[in-house]
Amino acid sequence: MAPDKTAKKDMLFHPAGDLKKNAHVPDFDTYKELYAKSIDSPDDFWGDIAKDFFWKTRHTGRVLDHNFDVTKGEVFVKCMEGARTNICYNVLDRNVHHRNLGDKVAFYWEGNEPGDELTVTYGELLHGVCRFANVLKSQGVKKGDCVSIYMPMVVELAVAMLACARIGAVHSIVFAGFSAESLCERITDSRCSLLITADGFYRGEKLITLKLIADEALRKCKDKGFPVQRCIMLKHLSKDPEEIPQGSQSPPLAKRSRPDLQVPWNPEVDLCWHSLVAEASDECEPEWCDSEDPLFILYTSGSTGKPKGVLHTVSGYMLYTATTFKLVFDHQPDDVYWCTADIGWITGHSYVAYGPLANGATSVMFEGLPTYPDVSRMWAIVDKYSVSKLYTTPTAIRMLMKYGGDPVRKYKRESLKVLGTVGEPINPEAWQWYRTVVGDGRCPIVDTYWQTETGGHVLTPLPAATPTKPGSATFPFFGVVPAVLSESGEELEGASEGHLAFKRPWPGIARTVYGDHDRFEATYFRRFPGYYLTGDGCRRDEDGYYWITGRTDDMLNVSGHLLSTAEVESALAEHEGVVEAAVVGKPHPVKGESLYCFVTLAEGAAYDAVLEAELKRRVRERIGAIATPDHIQSATGLPKTRSGKIMRRVLRKIVCGERDLGDISTLADSSVVEQLFQSRC
Ligand code: WTA
User: Fold this and answer.
1) Is residue 89 over pLDDT 80?
2) Is the pLDDT of residue 270 over 50?
3) Residue 248 confidence (pLDDT)
4) What is the per-residue pLDDT for 302?
5) From ligand 1's centre to the CA of 446, what distance in Å?
6) Domain spans, the chain
7) Domain 559-678 has CATH 3.30.300.30
8) How confident is the model at residue 38 (pLDDT cuts 50, 70, 90)?
9) How far apart are the CA of 561 and the centre of ligand 1, in A?
10) Ligand 1, pocket residues at CB < 6 Å
C-alpha cells in the first residue's frame, strides 16, 4: 500500500474502547489526576510504587531529592536514600518466590535463523543468573567492579547483565556492532578487568567473528597500558554437540552452527563460559546494594567526540523502568511483548531486560533482522508467539514500508494490541502506515521519546488514555516536567518552539558521566541552570502536545543511533590524505539521517575510489558499521566564520541543495560555497 500522504499533523486518534476495560490508566482524566499527584507529591507517588518491590532495608531519606541548579552547588539526584535492595532479586527472585511466576516464560528467544528458538522461564533464568554470578565471583569480580559485555542478542547476554547486578558489579554493555577501537575505548574508560563475549554470530547472511574483534580490542587495551585480566567466551556458533550440558538453557545447536569456526584462544586470559558454568552452583545470595550504588554504565555519543559513560543507579532506575513499562505498554499478565532493540542500547537495557522482567512479563528476544530471510520476518514472529505489544523503530517501519502491505498481510497479526516506537522522530506517514497496515487500524501507537540519560520514557502517550497525533510524543510521563526554552534560556509558555528541557528529576534519570561529573554538569546543566537540557529541539502546539524537531547540538541520529559529528570527523582527519573534515546529516528516507562528509585533502592527495574506500573503512574501524558515511565530498575549502569556525549550518543547506543560506554575513570566504554546490555528490 502506498504511504498515506494525507496524514495530517493535527489528526487526533482516540484510544479504542476495548483496551480501556482493564487498562492501568483507562482514560485521559485519570492520566491528568495521576500526573498532578506525581508532581504535587512525588514522594507519595513513587513511595506507593516502591511498596511493590523488595527492600532489604527501608529508605530513610526522601524518596526523591535533587539539585539541578549549578549555581547553587553540585548537581545531584537521589532516590530512596538509605534503602538497600537488589534489582536482580526484584526482577527474578521476587517473581519466582513471591509472585509464583517460576514457570512463566521470561523469554522466547528467536534466533537469526527461523527455527532456532529457546524458551526460558523465570525459574530457569534465576538459576542461570545465579550460576553465572558465582562464576563472576570465582573470577574475583566484586561489588563495585566494572564488567564489559560484548555479546550478540542471546539469552546469555541477559544472564550476564543480571549476574553483574546480582553481585553489585557494574555492567558496561557495548553493542556488538561497535568496532575493536570503540570497544577498547569503552573498556579503558570504565577500567574493566573482565570482558564477556561470544565466538561469533550471524546477522542475516553475514558472519560476525566477535571474538576476533574482541581480541583486537584487548590487544589495543594492553598497548594503552590497560591489560584486561580475563575474557569469558560463550560458544554460540562453535559448540560441539557433546559440549551441550544436559538440561542446559543453552540453545540447541544453531542451524548455522560452525564447529569449524576459527576462534583464537589465549589460555592466560580466555575462559570458556560453558566449562565455568558447569561447575558453578545455582544458588547465589544477592549483594544488597544501596539505592544510589551504580547499576550500569552505558556509553553514548558526546559532542566532543569522546563517548560519555552514562551512569544509572539501582533503585531509581528500577522503579522508573518498571513503571514506564507497565503503563506505557499497559502491561497485562497474559501479554507477549516484543521489543526489537538490541540489549546493547538503552532501549534494550530498559525495555528488553529490566522493565519487562520487573513486571514478570513474557518477552520475545530476537537475534536477527527484520529483513531476513525475507521482509515478512517480523510478522511471522508476531503470529508465531502471538505478540500483543510490539516496540520497534521508525527506521524499521520506514524500511518495511518500502515493500508495501502485502508482506505484512501474509500474517494475521490478530494478537497485536499496542504498537510502540522509539529512537528518532517518526514521520506522520510512517506513523499512519504502522497504525493502518501493521495494526489494521485497531492498535494505538505509543511514540516514546527518551534518551540513554533519561533511563526510561519521558514524553509518551499512554495507550488507553492519550488521544494521539501522528508524529507527536504527546505528553510527559508521571513525574516529568518539560519546559520549552528560548535561546536565552527564557521559559516559553503555550504554543512555542525551542530547546526541550526538564525542570526536575524523575527516579530514572542518569546520575553522572562515569569518572567525569564535571562533564555531566557541563553537558546537561550549565547552559540553563536549574534545567536538565536534552539537546533536542521541540515544539509545543496549541493543545500542549510535544513534537521533537531533532537535535540542537552536533549530534546526528542515523537509524536511531546517535553519532557525534566530532567523532566521525576525527576518524576522517586521522587519514594522512585528509587535512580537515566536516560532517553533517542529510535527510534520508529510511534512516532518518545519513552521514554526509566534506574532506579537504592534503597537498598531493587525490580523491579517487581508493581514497573514498579507505576513508569509509577508517570510520568503520574507528566507530563501527553504523557510522559508515553515505557520501564523501572532496572540498577545496569549507565555509568558515572569520574566527575559523566551520559553519555546519551552511553545509547542511548545501547537502540539501537549498540555495537560501540565511544570514551568511560572518562567512569569511563566500566563494567556497559555490564550489561546494558545484561538486555535490
Ligand atoms: C532521539 C534512545 C523523537 C532524540 C531511547 C534523543 C527521539 C535521542 C525519540 C536519544 C522519539 C529518541 N521521537 N526523537 N520518540 N526517541 N529520540 O540515547 O534525539 O540512543 O535525544 O536513546 O534519540 O537517543 P538514545
Assistant:
1) yes
2) yes
3) 54
4) 85
5) 14
6) 115-297, 559-678
7) yes
8) very high
9) 8
10) 300, 345-347, 422-425, 447-452, 473, 534-536, 548, 551, 557, 562
Distances 449 to 265, 309, 398 between C-alpha atoms, Å: 43, 21, 18
In order, the DSSP letters of 494-545 are SSEEEEEEESS--TTS--EETT-HHHHHHHHTSSSTTSEEEEEEEEE-TT--
| CA of residue 450 to ligand 1 center, whole Å | 5
Cα 619 to Cα 567: distance, rounded to the nearest angstrom: 9
Mutate to test the pocket of ligand 1, among 328, 391, 513, 562 (most ligand atoms within 8 A of CB): 562
Q: What is the pLDDT of residues 218-265, one digit of tens each?
A: 999 999 999 999 999 999 999 876 666 555 556 667 888 888 898 999
Q: Which atom of ligand 1 is the closest one to the Cα of 535?
A: 21
Q: Give the right CATH number for 115-297 from 1.10.150.120, 3.40.50.1820, 3.40.720.10, 3.40.50.12780.
A: 3.40.50.12780
My answer on whether omega of the bond before 373 falls inside 30° of 0, hence cis, is yes
Q: Indicate whether this model's pTM tops 0.70.
A: yes
Cell of 128: 542461570
Burial class of residue 10 in the structure, from the number of CB atoms within 10 Å of its CB (0-12 exposed, 13-18 middle, 19+ buried): exposed
Q: Is 40 helix (H, G, I), strand (E, B) or coil?
A: helix
pLDDT band at 531 (very low <50, low <70, confident <90, very high): very high
For the cut 50, the answer to whether the pLDDT of residue 4 exceeds it is no
